[in-house]
Structures
1.
Amino acid sequence: MSEIFKLSAAELAEKMVAGEVSSVEATQAHLDRIAATDGEALEAGNRAAGKSGLNAFLHVNTEEALSEARSVDEARAAGEQLPALAGVPIAIKDLIVTKGQPTTAASRMLEGWMSPYDGTVIEKVRAARMPILGKTNLDEFAMGSTTEHSAFGPTRNPWALDRIPGGSGGGSAAAVAGFQAPLALGTDTGGSIRQPAAVTGSVGVKPTYGSISRYGVIAMASSLDQVGPCTRTVLDAALLHEAIAGHDPKDSTSLNTPVGPYVEQARAGAAEGGLKGLRVGVIKELHQTSEGFTPGVCNRFNESLKYLEAAGAELIEVSLPTVEEAIAAYYLIMSSEVSSNLAKYDGVRFGLRVLPEEGPMTIERVMAATRAAGFGAEAKRRIILGTYALSAGYYDAYYGSAQKVRTLIQRDYAAAFEKCDVLVSPTAPTTAFKIGSTDESSDPMAMYKGDIATVPVNLAGVPALSLPAGLAEEDGLPVGIQFTAPAHEDARLYRVGAGLEAALNQAWGGPIWKNMPDTESLIRDFDFGGVK
Ligand code: GLN
């Protein structure tokens, strides 16, 4: 079969059960695709010509992936009862620790580090019998919206190689959108699963805070971090979500709540009349050009609202009055937690150690030399901001005030959910911007502002899903639409997401990626200018 890598995870799983495709074939097809389209793994000829591809992967796990695929095929041949996604390969954001593979958080601080254990979500992926293709690129320690802040070079958007794939999980999103993996895991602290999904035309879900274990997930901001699925279809996200969710005694923030029924709701939503009676709250503050949402984003958003109505949903206007303060509150709370979580990279306990070039060899000087060399500019900026916000004398004015705003935002959501079942807004105010346009030499605030629709969700701890809403007329690049549900009601996201996806696919005559340029030709024709 040609182009096995274009099949969704659900289709692959079905074909494996039917004996039409083996896990070895599927895994090999994705490894070949990675070799044809990705950075370090890129085939020799292209590499020699200075081409670097998407750079979605930091590590490709060829041998282990194929050996797991072989063992799944053998188990199936022996008639063993296997989990739903058995044999379907997956990529993992390099913020999640995996035994036997490097975990770097895209930082020099952890370069070359091998975890002695698996994170709980990796144990679950292994128990689900999914071959792990490798580890994907990200902004250093998940801080950023572009993947340009990786210590190992930017990831490129498969829709246009001069564009960012979003961040921090740009590697997972580009891998999925670029057909290098049918599924990937991401982490979302302020949008790092959803915004990359939006700008790469894929699907991303941030589950309810605490509903998926974070044991073995390198911490960015612990009151906000959450693991979730990156996929090309809503059904695939539901399948993966069911495989990784559940209570974990090893994570003190883990909740003991029921898992699912995500797959069932995705199927129900996609069926005829699947959205009948669903009350969808349109967030007044989050879809106006006056608020920085581009015309292309607003147009695709408004069109999607019409499709939702046509599918039986009832639209209600709702307001989140404090949402405008969300970015300020998020960047204070997140940076404060970052400054605390990253304090352990001190040149003594973890990772890199750099000795001062001259002068006395005190612990403070070793720490300073290590942190100066090990962290990139964005990590340093946030550590400094967070340390300042937490310092005596400023704590109440900054961190304390931000926590109060957080409470107000949570109340806004609670009030809105009294009137509707889910909320809707665009996922991001713009499509993918050009690589280099928001780096530190220009304006980090421009990057932070792009998080306006995603960070309130993390501050409130509620779940949200982003899916493609079409292409913007200005640049032909994907636009994302985001649904938000009350805490523990993740299943509603799958119903409404699958309902809209079905309506849009029907209108477009197929999935959005039918319009995506051929990645291999893009790479052949693109001038990488020697930059990775
Ligand atoms: N863009 C956000 C930030 O820069 C989100 C990061 C994340 O979710 N990990 O903080």
2.
Amino acid sequence: MTHFLDIHKTEADQLRGIIDNARAMKIARNDRPKGMPDDDQPLAGRMVALIFEKPSTRTRVSFDVGVRQMGGQTMVLSGSEMQLGHGETIADTARVLSRYVDLIMIRTFEEATLLEMAEHATVPVINGLTNRTHPCQIMADIMTFEEHRGPIAGRKVVWSGDGNNVFASFAHAAGQFGFDLTFTGPKTLDPEPEWMEYAAAMGRPITIERDPYKAVEGADLVVTDTWVSMHDPQSAKERRHNQLRGYQVNSDLMSRAKPDSLFMHCLPAHRDDEATSEVMDGPHSVIFDEAENRLHAQKAIMRHCLGL
Ligand code: CP
Ligand code: NVA
């Protein structure tokens, strides 16, 4: 069973293959006249379940559209409306869904839910975000960087803000794609030690630099994300804003990175909190390319999982 659970759980050559396929599919689709279906319909006759236990715009729409572009059909399910949200075990849900559908994508809270789903499903399972990681996003981000600037290997990527689930997948990608990753943020919001240890073991130790201005020196890519994630208690908001204000990505900070540096944010953003509108809409920003590339990257991930 080929699941896509995390970037560090898929072989590096397979990750590279996914990015290459995503790029090829994007080009092929953009070359077709608008309104014409793709010649390639690898998911014809297949059904994909998209389960959401948290809100989503990009993940939901890009998976749904991606499956349809490849000739398949989708079923979008909200966790709270399923028996899953009313006490049925994840293992039983996985076994039942596997009798109906060919692929399961799940966005959930606990990583344990994703892992239990993958353990008991007899169809591939894709991680659409948990409290700990967001691998599909970072596959799209690698694709986006390389479209604009060529190979990411050996480049300097700087994350400013909360050491959260999106950062975690960047840490995995640093190991698998071979780039240098610097984290700048307050100590209380440092990334999980497990991810730091993983990157170090892969020969890409993550640099921690508390001063954001020093951190971004020489950066090829500056990345941030919301200061309060969906799984964080709203009561943490004010404290986090106070802790993170100094790590806002603004034009002053971007001016210390390389002149041709890129700016990324997975979105949704809180404009003028973690990043200013000036940066988000400015010349370094590729935020909407990232959003588009979720579609292409996930199409390639689904094909990888289904061996198509
Ligand atoms: N970036 C991302 O995953 O966005 P959504 O929460 O809208 O899916
Ligand atoms: N860190 C954010 C990412 C949203 C796509 C969250 O988990 O809410």
